[in-house]
Automatic annotation (TrEMBL):
CDD domains: KU_like
Superkingdom per UniProt: Bacteria
GO molecular function term, any single one: double-stranded DNA binding
Gene Ontology terms: biological process: DNA recombination; double-strand break repair via nonhomologous end joining
Native source species: Pseudotabrizicola algicola
Name of the protein: Non-homologous end joining protein Ku
Region (Disordered): 227-246
Pfam families associated with the record: Ku
Amino acid sequence: MAPRPFWKGYLKLSLVNCPVTMTPATTEAEKLRFHTMNAVTGNRVVSRYIDAVTGKPLRDEDKAKGYARGEDDYVLLEEDEISEVALESTRTIDIDMFVPADSIGWIWYDTPHYLSPGDRVGEEAFSVIRAAMADTGTVGIARLVLYRRERAVMLEPRGKGIVVWTLRYGNEVRDEADYFDKIDAQKPEAKLMTLVKRLIDERKQDWSPEMASDPVQDRLLDLIAAKKKGRKRPAKPKAAPAEPSNVVSIMDALKRSLAAETSGKSSGK
């Protein structure tokens, strides 16, 4: 069953608009979470804001945002002052422009959301906007207030719906040239390339969500289940293999790797 949408509003392109709903495309609902406990009493503990100078607890109504302009010197901003500089409408995705779908690098993608028509009446307008983007190979760019911040978002047609990606802010993305330009651009030796491609072919598989499973959470769940039943904790997993040492001969290492891959497949049959 699909979760309830966390956002309802309108999708707008010029004079065309339709009601839409949006739901995060990812979830942490299954993520294992722990409470901080008092190990002596077995009671949960609570956290409180304390004034760093007076040591007194802070009342909710006395909280404010502070921007540091020097040591122990802050500019204080109230919540309503911050809200006033946000977009006037937080409930309309007004598409400002369209750009080629392949022109936005992956590093700008932040958080995906599923966008769907809000009702049957709006499906036609929604579908024609989505289909037109798909046919022209473009994505839409808009601005929207999400998670209490104004963000640039990208609307990407996907199947029968649209994926809304929040985009990272410009000051959050580092220039790859600062890191990659130092790498030697020398073309790899043809024989080495052939061997590595063979290794890739040996390990090639179809993608499966199980490839991104969380083994640590699985072991924690086993530990919790054992404690519930009063059993001893499960055996510790095998130690991680030692870090590889520097390879003297890449060719020899690749040949040994291929031999191991072939041997492993043979023994597994």
